[in-house]
Amino acid sequence: MKLAPFIGTSPRTIPRKINQRNDGQAAVIDSYAMTAIWKHKFGRIRVDPMAHTVIVGIVNENHHWMLVVMCPHEKKTLFLDPLGEGKGKTKVCLQSTRAFMWMKGCKVSGWTCSTLPHNRQQDSTSCGVLALKFAENILLGEAIEFETSQKAVHELRLDIATSLLRESDDLSRLCFYCGMEEQDEEHWICCDICQRWYHHQCVQRPPVDKPYLCPGCT
């Protein structure tokens, strides 16, 4: 099962459960928007950081998925790379999330970026599965050191697929960048590869008379 179409939506089911117990505690930034933040392209990402205690998003860099968890009130970011966190990527994570928080009007003096102990992926394809599992366990307050064998990853894939079929929202009227619903006055554009729709303004108003590739397909 290819996870790319689901990375941006699957984590949303966990914050919904948490927020039923703790109003507004958790929020999710779509993977396309989180990847844009990673590249310092903030656009129209509609989230008020200080309204949440934790904000999760999954980054795609060169077809590799990594988890970013921002804690605005604690002024820190958690960064989890299924392959292991190098100094270079940790620095990028710190700089990009701190810049995003500053752009949103948050105080960023003393902002830090760290990680948590976790098992690493043992193949070249399970990064998306592990990033989703990291997000789920962190949001639920559970340990993130779990089995990453081929059999265990296969079971995780099945769990993710089952959860998506059971709990995912209807996303057909949402912009895949900002996650907001369709508005009558909005102009839209469709990616010629993945066929996802975006608010024209959210993706920097590309020419409508030329083929368009979305952030996830470029």
TrEMBL record:
Record family assignment: Belongs to the peptidase C48 family.
PROSITE patterns, per database record: ULP_PROTEASE, ZF_PHD_1, ZF_PHD_2
Gene: LOC117561740
Ubiquitin-like protease family profile domain sequence ranges: 1-138
Superkingdom assignment: Eukaryota
GO molecular function, one term: zinc ion binding
Protein name: Uncharacterized protein LOC117561740 isoform X2
Keywords: Hydrolase, Metal-binding, Protease, Zinc, Zinc-finger
Database matches in SUPFAM superfamilies: Cysteine proteinases (SSF54001), FYVE/PHD zinc finger (SSF57903)
Domain PHD-type: 172-218
NAD recorded as keyword: no
Alphabetical list of Pfam families matching this protein: Peptidase_C48
Organism name: Gymnodraco acuticeps
Gene Ontology terms: biological process: proteolysis
